[in-house]
Amino acid sequence: MELYGATLSWTSSISLPIHIAQPPSIWGIKRFRLFCLNNIKNVSDETQKDNRMVVSITGATGFIGKRLVQRLHADNHRICVLTRSKSKAQLVFPAKEFPGILIAEEPEWKDCIQGSNAVVNLAGMPISTRWSFEIKQEIKDSRISVTSKVVDIINNTQDDVRPSVLVSATAVGYYGTSETNVFDEQSPSGNDYLAEVCREWEARALKVNKDVRLALIRIGVVLGKDGGALAKMIPIFMMFAGGPLGSGKQWFSWIHLDDIVNLIYEALSNPSYKGVINGTSPNPVRLAELCEQLGKIMGRPSWLPVPDFALKAVLGEGATVVLEGQKVLPARATELGFSFKYPFVKDALKAILSS
Known about the structure:
two-stranded antiparallel ribbon, 14 helices, globular, disordered N terminus, SDR39U1, DUF1731, NAD(P)-bd_dom_sf, Epimerase family protein SDR39U1 homolog, chloroplastic
């Protein structure tokens, strides 16, 4: 499960040709940078005419990041994957399927970011594991260190080549957990560990240059077939052992993978998308309802609950994220007129399981 928000992510949560050969090793990063800078400076350039972007992305090999890269690539935008493991990224984005994507390890991030007009920051260690002191520190550091690095590079870039927008992920864990409260972007932060992580995570992003448009997307539990929550739940239901975790009364603030990718995509190009935006469906559900709908669609029972003690035995302190939950509404996205493809969990599950 990727527990992205309070959810920080349930694992942490429950394609058009660009004709550039895949670079060998360091491949003229400078060539790429010069190409990007020319695109940004020269408004008559074909890329500018077509409104195509040059986007650098951290966390591109993750559940959300992979789908975002696919979407941007399909729309002929130029992409730089900022990674700490080029070999892993090359497996996820093979050159034959993703021609023209540049894969850059940390020493090359600066050139990529300075050659981009947009940056997406999705990096962070999954939180669905037993939390020790060391793991908790790593969960926090993995988010804060990458965000700090990205912001520092942006801030130290000359005005004429600085990216114009930063879309930085955070999580609905910011609000803490509750069975009764309803949270939107104006709600205060919680007082638990994940809320603390999210506050510090966002604080680093907020240090970005004031001339850079910043969109902070607080992401809920992301639903999709090839990762996140459903990838963990579907096999259990297939074995007729599915059911709610804990009481089932806890709120489940979810979003379909396509919708979170569309929200990030819109935030890249629409100047109205700035500040905090909740990346959740307008119709959160109780966890019992999610499991009931999943069972019906799969033709499997959903009555066998996973007791609190069993989940705590696996996740320890981290189990509180799943056992308590929170009801988060996307007030800002609704105000902006964002159109959710899957506003209801029943339709989202049907689409995922039929794909």
